[in-house]
Fold each of these.
Amino acid sequence: MPMTSRRKPQWIRGRLPSASAVSQMNRQTLARSLHTVCLHARCPNRGECAQKGNATFLILGDLCTRNCAFCAVAHGHPGALDPDEPKRVAEAVKSLNVVHAVITSVTRDDLPDGGASVFAATIAAVRGLVPHATVEVLVPDFRGCGRALETVVHAAPEVIGHNLETVPRLYGILRGGADYAVSLALLRNAKRLDPRIITKSGIMLGIGETREELRRVIGDLARIRCDVLTLGQYLQPTPDHHPVVRYLGLEEFHDLREIATREGIPQVVAGPMVRSSYHARDVLDELLSKAGRDGLR
């Protein structure tokens, strides 16, 4: 890839948040002792999403058992599970008038099933209280446990996402405790367990990967029939995290979208501020519209 300046370009800008929207989102979640990725991962799009009434709920607590070099979520030794958390997530979905609920979690390597049963319970709670809402889950790798993945698949969310995050060469630097083959297998097996489920993955850019490495990862995702791929610029959340190696130009995002589309991935979203759950409902609607016209693979 051509190198660009490490100085942040003008197109890397989050929209100024609506104070009232952010306050409402915080009230609804904090009042129920809930966590969101928007806040804990310092998402640059949180202002825009709050204004639209969108949020990505973070379950299984707010402490991750891993310490990825790119992630702002705190790590440490998590406490006990909260049995009422699924119910409170569903109540927040209802009170915020969410039509597409996105649910993710910290990684819980301390739990036998990695928290899969809590994902299933949360999906069921949302279905019971807000039956018109669609559900998207962004799951950890469950350390490759097939039974844990089956638990989530059987709960029947519309979308199962798992982010590859980066290219295999950088896993040891950026994703301690993770394994590229395990992550790829999770996405492949989710589709095998239920071909109707939409699978989704995301990759950060500008963190040290090469164009050829990205091509190979995109090809891997296409071969396992991944339905949605998001490509966004990595932004260093704090000075203690892995630095940005470079900022991609806008034309590079367009080129990578074209490459992934030619490889056969049905829905590709690429841009500097794109994140895995950014405009998630719109992405799902567009994919389903394409499926209605052309059918999914």
Note: Residues 38-42 have pLDDT under 50 and may be disordered.
Amino acid sequence: MCIKLKLAAFLLLASIVAKAQVASHYEVALWSQFKSAAVSYTFDDNCSNQLPVALPLFDKLNFKVTFFTVTNWGPNWTGLANASANGHEIASHTVTHTALNTLTITNQDTELNQSQLTINSHITNSKCVTIAYPNCIEGDLSTIQKYYIAGRSCNNSIVSSSPSDFYSLGSIITGDLGAVKTAQDFNDKVSSAKISKGWCVFLTHGIDNDGGYSPTSSSEISSHLTFMDVNNADYWVAPFGNVVKYIRERNTSTVRETVITNDSLQIDVHNTLDNTTYNEPLTIRRLLPTGWQNAAVYLNNTLINSTISHITGSDYVTFDVVPDQGKIFMSSRSSVVTGIENSIENSPIRIHPNPFSQEITLDVDGDFTFTIVTLEGKVLEDGSGSGIKTIGKNLRPGMYILWIRRGSNFFSTKLIKK
């Protein structure tokens, strides 16, 4: 039965990955910012030195972590809320830390549901969406899936960049009773993840002498984090849930492009995941279009951060974007766009007739350029004009998108040829 379940999970993953389609000239990063590996630091059991001793070591370097919280073991909710406001993840370690496989399905449901509800009542700026299993023992899968997008276990192994099962994600125990005790042990594990381009998840309980299970030395953590800071270009350090979201978005998102003019593009990044949960930015890069010296990237009407990099003889523009958050536009830096897309209604642009059977007339106040593309983004006709111009004579019957640029503004509308 276990083999059948694993096979089913693998086939499901294969079908999901197959849905991801990325336009030519584009690449979605395996890990954020095209780093070589992902690393997550997770803390269990609300141990007393986690917030006052360990957390400042990570905050100093702006590394974000995950606290898997047992809700009726007296959590420091104020401290956890402050950590969440600073970008750390607060996730579930159940209500009572009882091994799930010893409970009835009804009692498992209570542990999973009530833990999540309690966390969400105290941590209001983000949702609790992941769980760490008490004693690393998984419970009933269908019950877990009702509340969480992923579950953490422990197996002392590096996680694959595309796991076949998000509900049995492994981790590496640190401290006196774990496989990782010293800074060098930490360094060796992340170096192994870099080689395999995988995901290293550390599981820590006690810190120094706080009485927690398998205590880990804060000085060893501090020394290791110095290594991580020096090698920051290689490792994406992120909370457990953020990495889960990134993987699923990366493996299911489509990237499509529509050419607007010779110095502007529209990019669509889309998936069918729940956008209220899956909100992790993906890192995307595009080969800099021919003739462009630079580029600016916009989300709707807002300029977003982007960088130009030179890789193996070619220039690329790289940017981060959350799928399904709006329309993305790229423009040559020499022609920065101030008004990205506008409705043709109540504009200085008039088109008639639409639908049309022969050709369509553009009536624009002033100079303009235009492009007609298919719904898939293929350019069929483009040109420029001033005042009145007829277009579309050679189009076949069908539906198209018309883009018009007037000054620093873009306008778009659908065309229908009968």
Note: The first strand starts at residue 26 and ends at 28.
